[in-house]
Amino acid sequence: GAGVSQTPSNKVTEKGKYVELRCDPISGHTALYWYRQSLGQGPEFLIYFQGTGAADDSGLPNDRFFAVRPEGSVSTLKIQRTERGDSAVYLCASSPGRNNEQFFGPGTRLTVL
Amino acid sequence: DQQVKQNSPSLSVQEGRISILNCDYTNSMFDYFLWYKKYPAEGPTFLISISSIKDKNEDGRFTVFLNKSAKHLSLHIVPSQPGDSAVYFCAASPLHYSGGGADGLTFGKGTHLIIQP
Q1: Is the pLDDT of residue A92 over 90?
Q2: Could you tell me if A25 lies within 8 Å of chain B, comparing CB atoms?
Q3: Pairing of strands A10-13, A65-68
């Protein structure tokens, strides 16, 4: 079956612009996670959805970052007024339930010029 | 402050030999540990996990050992193969079996394993 997919694979934007990153989880997976991986670092947790609701958004760095999952499947990570420091690979993962193995997508590489 | 530490950025091992990757953690609330493998331009792929109620878990060529008193775990790969060359991430989660956590995973910085022919 299909794994987690993320679009776009690469996104280049200018400082101050708004971007949206999309994640399609594995069908039937109720849990969805967003992580950010900066160069030379491990993935850093941003937000976790159980169904449609954000169960834990403690990893979001500031209020420029927001994520939604309106129908409990596809999720969109939204970044307003992008800054150069937002440049990173944004990873999405899904799992069948809260305490299960997480399956990762290939990531979206965001570059803010 | 890094709660999960992988102190070796890279490790070179000869094909056929044992690869040992190490991981230390500081948060005593962590009770579930995972290893992920990552190739360039791909997302991390789950390898093996261990809960704090065990000290060893084995899956084929991969074995993870957990030493709770030392807050240390290691991943052993025997025998090492060229396809094992990748970045390996150690990750941890708190309160897994009490159901109170296991939301976001906390990752180390990774160890780049290079298997030499």
Answers
A1: yes
A2: no
A3: unpaired
